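User: Fold this; tokens only.

Assistant: Input:
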Amino acid sequence: MAKLIGLVGKPNCGKSTFFNAATLSSVPIASYPFTTIKANHGVGYVRVDCVCKEFNVKCNPKNSICINGQRFIPVELLDVAGLVPGAHEGKGLGNQFLDDLRQADALIHIVDAAGATDAEGKPCKPGEHDPSEDVKFLEREIDLWFLSLLKKDWKKISREVQLAKKDILRELAKRFSGLGLKEHHISIAAKKANLDIEKPSSWSDGDLEKFSTALREVSKPILICANKFDLKEAESNLEKLKMGSKVIPAAADSELALRRADKAGLIRYVPGDPDFEIVGQIDEKQKKALEFIRENVLKKLGNTGVQQTLNAAALELLNLIVVYPVEDENKLTDKNGNVLPDAYLVPKGTTVREFAYKIHTDIGENFICGIDARTKMKLGADHELKNGDVIKISYSK
């Protein structure tokens, strides 16, 4: 199942700008790994070094894009409904917000790092609002949501589990299954909260709160995107935002401007690059705007931060790796002769057989072995794949 990254944030923080910048593609690809893209869903791209350079071949991507040895691999993004106080109780768009969160495997919290919007998202003078409060607020809302689900009939459930000697972790996994949580999430959270899983009826309200927070940290990891970093007030707020979460400074409006200029043929720009090249006819106003981005964003940050945020969410928060399946391990081609046609993002620890199922159910069910294109060695079903592996799957036909 494809991983889903949710974008969250209060009004006017730049969430929609980030979403538009991340999902604007000037290079259409043949096939997406997502069968249905809803209105608030889009396709972003994770950027990695393509193995084509290592093998000294020119690739013909089908499910992804390769630009000068940089492979852009699709990942599904979800523009989560706006957050308001009391969302965990269904206030505002709370119910939609929680339903969106239910689907997401990881979250990117777009924060107005310049403090130019108040707690409700209304514009204010840059520096007037402390953006770290937005981070605490969002995390607290998710914690309270988990807590409300946990406390529902808790005394009755905990007593029954203890009397019948059932596994509390398994019972809680059933309760939270609608949120995409698995038993291992519950187990890790219980350990983080130092809970006695043999005596759940002894858990206090404080224990349940600690467990809810741990559950959020384990199951819905959050990356902070410190947006609006082209404003000078953002720099002084950066340290405040580093409260245990990974923080990446960004200027989403600059990325969107560069992507649109590239699509219009005015500049040549590859997402994540430290600079751009003017290749079309531009007027003085456009030139000034591009120079502002170059001087105040690209030279200051080394990039706009949007591509770096997507990469960090996929490769660090979700711990995904890239694997390239081929049908001919010598020529690195599929049956039609396309070189390195596909690149898949899969969780670290994925086995060869699990990868075979990801390609196609029939291939997984008729699996024989994997073959490493670099070493030509056979790989067993339980062999764990590594980042950048090029693999042929042999199966009975």
